[in-house]
Write a structure and sequence with these properties.
By secondary structure, the chain is α/β, with parallel strands linked by helices. Helices cover 26% and strands 24% of the residues. It folds into 2 domains: 44 residues, no CATH class; 233 residues, Aldolase class I (TIM Barrel).
C-alpha cells in the first residue's frame, strides 16, 4: 500500500518534501534521499507506509530508555530508510538499504501489541521512524485509546511543523545527539542545529533521553563531551535531569576497519558528563 505523503508541496511536476531539513525536490519516478518518498504523477507518496522489516519484543532499557517505565517490555518495529548517512550505522541493512518487508496495517499492529501480556506499547525504532510519520500518525491514536504507549527512537532530523503534528501522540523519545560538532554532522549527512531544536521542543512536553555513540577519532574528545553534556544540562525544561546514554562503538557499515572503542573511554566520558547531568549511563560495555 502506498499512501500520499504529508508535509510536501507541489512544484510543477516535482514535489518538495517538507519533512526534514533536506527538503528534497523529488522529480517524477524518483525517490527522496531517505528512499521512502516517491513522486508519482506529481504526487508524493510514502512508499514505506506500513512496510515492516523488523519486529521484536525488547526491554524498554534496550531502546535505550532507562527512566521510562523501567522493567517493562515494548513491541519494537522498524521499516526502512533514513535521512542521514552515518558511516558507523549499526542498522545499515535497513536504514541504508531496502530490505524485505511485510505490510502491517495500523489495526494489525494494535492487535499484535495487545496480544502480548503486560506490553507497554510500541517503539518505532531500528531505522529512522520520522520517515514513517504517516504510519505513526495513524497507529499512535489507536494505541493510545487502548492504553498503550508510543515511543520513538530517532536521529532528531525533522522540521518543526511535522514534529508539532506528531508530538502530541508520542509518550517518549530517545534522540541521538551524535556529537556536538557541526562538522561531524555534515560528514554524516545531518544538521546539529536541527537535532538540538528537536531535543529542546520534545523535552518541554514528553519524556526524552539522549544517546551519543562514541566513535573513535570522531567524537571521543573530553572537551566535546563537556560541551555536549553542558548543553543538555542547560535546557530549562529539564534542568540537568535529561538522561544521557554514552554508548560504545563497534565496527559496522563503512567503519569495519576501526577497532571497538575501549570500555575505559566510555566510563571516562560518562564520569565527565556526570559533572553536569544527574543521569548518565554507559552502554554496550558488557
Amino acid at each position: 500500500m502506498r499512501k500520499e505523503a504529508l508535509f510536501y508541496e507541489k512544484k510543477g511536476g516535482a514535489a518538495r518534501c517538507l519533512l526534514c531539513p533536506r527538503m528534497c525536490v523529488i522529480h517524477e519516478g524518483r525517490t527522496g534521499f531517505c528512499s521512502t518518498r516517491v513522486n508519482s504523477g506529481g504526487t508524493l507518496f510514502a512508499e514505506n507506509y506500513g512496510r515492516i522489516s523488523s519486529i521484536a519484543l525488547d526491554p524498554i532499557e534496550k531502546k535505550p530508555l532507562k527512566r521510562f517505565f523501567p522493567g517493562s517490555d515494548i513491541l519494537s518495529v522498524g521499516s526502512y530508510g533514513c535521512n542521514m548517512t552515518c558511516a558507523f550505522c549499526q542498522n545499515f541493512s535497513i536504514s541504508q538499504m531496502k530490505p524485505r518487508t511485510d505490510f502491517l496495517p495500523p489495526e494489525k499492529l494494535l492487535e499484535a501489541a495487545l496480544s502480548i501480556p503486560e506490553n507497554l506499547g510500541v517503539a518505532f525504532t531500528y531505522n529512522e521512524p520520522f520517515t514513517s510519520v504517516e504510519y505513526i500518525l495513524d497507529a499512535a491514536p489507536l494505541l493510545r485509546k487502548r492504553g498503550l504507549k508510543t515511543v520513538l527512537v530517532t536521529n532528531g532530523m525533522i522540521l518543526e511543523k511535522p514534529l508539532a503534528t506528531l508530538l502530541p501522540l508520542v509518550d517518549a523519545l530517545n534522540i541521538d545527539l551524535k556529537a556536538f560538532s557541526r562538522e561531524f554532522y555534515q560528514r554524516h549527512g545531518g544538521s546539529l542545529e536541527t537535532v538540538k531544536k528537536t531535543i529542546e521542543i520534545c523535552a518541554k512536553s514528553v519524556h526524552v533521553e539522549a544517546t551519543t555513540l562514541i566513535v573513535p577519532g570522531e567524537n571521543d574528545g573530553e572537551e566535546e563531551m563537556d560541551e555536549l553534556s553542558g548543553w543538555l544540562a542547560s535546557l530549562p525544561s529539564v534542568s540537568g535531569d535529561i538522561p544521557l546514554h554514552i554508548t560504545r562503538f563497534f565496527p559496522r557499515f563503512k567503519m569495519r576497519d576501526k577497532q571497538p572503542l575501549p570500555v575505559e573511554t566510555i566510563f571516562s566520558l560518562a564520569e565527565r558528563a556526570k559533572q553536569r547531568l544527574r543521569y548518565v549511563y554507559a552502554g554496550n560495555v558488557d
